């Protein structure tokens, strides 16, 4: 999965949502920079656990950003693993099984928009 990184996908979705939310809301550059850092950790997780795809959505009401990483499996053997740090920064965390039988790890992050 090295050819697509998480923030590339997130940027496309955030850009589209930003145009939909305008002119009432604008992208907060600092919040977006933090989201980019979260994405770099997700990229690292994808590399470590054989991530196969990313699915990114924006909740139009809550204005949260959901990133789902699909991978074959995930085994975390240390309480200091970067996964825990990322999980603590997310608003919600979930796990499900994809149609292919893979693991979906869902992170929900706070809004990156501020009211104009």
What does this structure look like?
- This protein is α+β, with helices and mostly antiparallel strands.
- The chain has a single domain (6-115), classed as 2-Layer Sandwich (Heat Shock Protein 90).
- It is 39% helix and 29% strand.
- The protein has a 4-stranded antiparallel β-sheet, with helices on one face. Strands 1-6 form a two-stranded antiparallel ribbon.
- Strand 4 and strand 5 form a beta hairpin.
- The longest helix has 21 residues, at 29-49.
- 21% of the residues are buried.
- The model has no long low-confidence stretch (mean pLDDT 95).
Strand content: 25-35%
Rg, nearest Å: 14 Å
What share of the residues lie within helices? 25-40%
- Distance between the amino and carboxyl termini: 37 Å
Task: Classify the fold: give the CATH topology.
Answer: Heat Shock Protein 90
In spatial order, strands of the major sheet run 2-3-5-4
Task: Let me know the largest β-sheet.
Answer: 4 strands, antiparallel
Order of helix and strand elements from N to C terminus? HEHEEHEEE
- Please count the helical segments: 3
The chain-level structural class is: alpha+beta
Number of domains: 1
Instruction: Please report the total strand number as a whole number.
Output: 6
The CATH architecture: 2-Layer Sandwich
Average per-residue pLDDT, rounded, comes to 95
Shape: globular
Low-pLDDT sequence parts: none
CATH class: Alpha Beta
TL;DR?
The chain has 116 residues and is an alpha+beta fold.
What layout of secondary structure does this protein have?
Layout: H1 6-21, E1 25-27, H2 29-49, E2 51-58, E3 65-71, H3 82-89, E4 92-97, E5 103-109, E6 113-115
Antiparallel strand pairs: 1-6, 2-3, 3-5, 4-5
């Amino acid at each position: 999965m090295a050819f697509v990184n998480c923030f590339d996908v997130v940027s496309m979705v955030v850009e589209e949502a930003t145009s939909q939310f305008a002119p009432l809301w604008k992208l907060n550059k600092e919040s977006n920079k933090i989201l980019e850092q979260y994405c770099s950790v997700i990229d690292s997780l994808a590399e470590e656990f054989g991530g196969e795809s990313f699915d990114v959505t924006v909740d139009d009401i809550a204005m949260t950003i959901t990133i789902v990483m699909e991978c074959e499996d995930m085994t975390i053997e240390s309480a200091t693993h970067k996964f825990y740090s990322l999980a603590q920064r997310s608003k919600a965390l979930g796990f499900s099984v994809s149609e292919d039988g893979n693991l979906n790890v869902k992170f929900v992050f706070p809004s990156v928009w501020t009211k104009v």
